[in-house]
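User: I'm preparing a small set of examples for a lab meeting where we compare how different chains pack in three dimensions. I only have the primary sequence for this one, and I'd like the structure in token form so I can line it up with the others. Please keep the answer compact; I'll paste it straight into my notes.
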Amino acid sequence: MREIVLFQTLRKNVRGSTILESMKAAIKTTKLTKRYGKDIGIEDVDLEVHEGEVFGFIGPNGAGKSTTIRTLLGLIKPTSGRALIFGKDITLYGPEVREDIGYLPSEVFYYDNMRVKDLLEYSASFYDKPKKQMQTRMYELAELLNLDLNKKIDDLSYGNKKKVGIVQGLLHSPKLIILDEPTGGLDPLMQQTFFDLLRAENKRGATILFSSHILSEVQKLCDRIAIIKDGRIVKIESMKDLQHNSYLRCELELTAPASKQSLDLPGIYSLERTGKRITFLYRGDINLLTQALAKLQLHDVHLREPELEEIFMHYYQKDA
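Assistant: Understood. Below is the structure token output for the 320-residue chain.
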């Protein structure tokens, strides 16, 4: 059974429990660990996402993002440690917890012969909410995302299948929205529409866990971020701090070689020289950088946002 259908099926089990923990955090994990034999998926993950927060969860592919999310959802069982959703242990109260979660996996798969409308109505039937309310919500989301409800699933492009997943995840107005690499297949204009939709959901009161390996996406939306590498959390930082001390990848072409002291500036990392070409990462005051560059004999300058992998290669070497 496909993952998104499995998630909805798992929530239709025995209901009823009492809240055992404080509900101050939407998500709280304590030393959450998942091992596959001798291999480690995640290890000792301590994470707390506040209610009403848009929380970014970033790292390169294979870092442990999806394993963490699937463990939070109860799709896989932790080897050790604990995960609480709105104060309830996911292993003890999984069906009840999943009532309040909307989930979009990185890859969506469906029954190809179904129409989009039939699939979404089937998904809506899993939730104890008025049918008319769910139908109204379905049409509103489909119109916003320009999704044809009458098409068959196997006639849809990858991007339109991702739109179906978005509608399916938001159909029941969940309190917690968990997104695992959600923008794959969406064109830039639709990505912007999707981000606007998430902001509206957050304004409504929903907590959002946004997992991605694309730093620019997270910077647009999130209040705080956790960075995961090799299955471990290596940094939790507010977006304000991240933006205040943002990284730049700097590539310089010189007309004449520069001395080693010419770029002796705090905040420069991973500097490499190849003839008249210099590359480095910079984190700090951009004015200080431009003052240093003005003293060089420059032929060309290229400044861009670095890939996450580039940041990990130098900033988190001590955590490797």
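A couple of notes for your slides: Residues 247-304 form one domain. Residues 141 and 167 are 6 Å apart (CA to CA).

User: Perfect, thanks.
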